[in-house]
Design brief:
Blueprint: H1 2-22, H2 27-40, H3 43-48, H4 51-56, H5 61-67, H6 76-91, H7 110-124, H8 131-147, H9 159-163, H10 167-181, H11 184-196, H12 206-216, H13 220-243, H14 247-270, H15 274-284, H16 289-303, H17 307-319, H18 326-339
Amino acid sequence: MVGRARSWICRTVRIAEIRAAVRGYSKEQLELLVVELYRAMPKSLRDSRSIDAIVQNPDAQEVRRIKSSSQPSLDFDDVAYEARTFIDYAKRQYYFAPNSYVLKKDRPKWRFIAKRLYRSLVQCAAEAENLEPATNLIEELYLVLCEGCRTVLFSSEDPFGSVGISQGEFFRQLLTLRNRYMDKDTFVQKAVALVIDGMTSRWSSRTDLVLTVLDFLTIPDLKFRAIKSAQELGAKQLSEYSKARRSDKQYHFQRTINALAELALHCYAQLGELEEGIKYFSGHYVDNDEMKLYVMVTILHDHYNQTDLLLDQIVRAMANGVRPRSSLIKLANSIRAAKK
């Protein structure tokens, strides 16, 4: 079990590194990379993973995979009724606590029901008339699994892991479906709001969700809209944070505010307005100055090639009395050494 978990973490870290590496590539570079990877891929692997279908329509990956599994056609009304019932029962803790609605022997089956409903709803969403209502139910299902990461709704502290669908995969599929029918402004508002709606699983983080949203912000206009949404939601969260009296409530609002600040920083950076992004991040990220510096430098170091700017930020912080952790000092020294 530990070995599998370690292997999964390594793969996840590697995928994150690949995303960061290709994010700055030009269209021509990405085309070359895709072609070379395709050539290197055995035909058996291309067939088993439906790579040709994904190349033809990457947004429809999950729909194609599910529809190709030879499942019979589904009656959306029946699926929707079962989904609403499951979500309602889950919120009432009927799959965990004793009750007269879900028998004791059936309560552990919640994970199989949730997985089947997810796949059925995605299959139903392939039909135009079902797209919006099916997506609404997928979002409700996603949020109830998120809630299960914080409160006891199921016999698991990691509902996504128990269902066998990672939170990242679930979230990406939800955004893919929303993006098919929502206008740009509504979609961006929804995507940004979903970053802070619900808890994250033990294998995920809000940063993962932020990076997923960024993949959908393909043009500058969408990034500007995301910044605006982050500002508006951040102001509301900050108001709630200032009113909160319990430490756990404050921590929750702090995490959401900081995720929005990270999203805005990424958007500014991808728009080529790094100085403005740093200014925004520094003024909105809720933590001590050393932690702000660490998070900001980590983001800029891992995703954007701006060594001079990183060094400048570390030096400025030290001049203002901030004592950076050793890893930042080592980074600053390595940048200086490279410049000689």
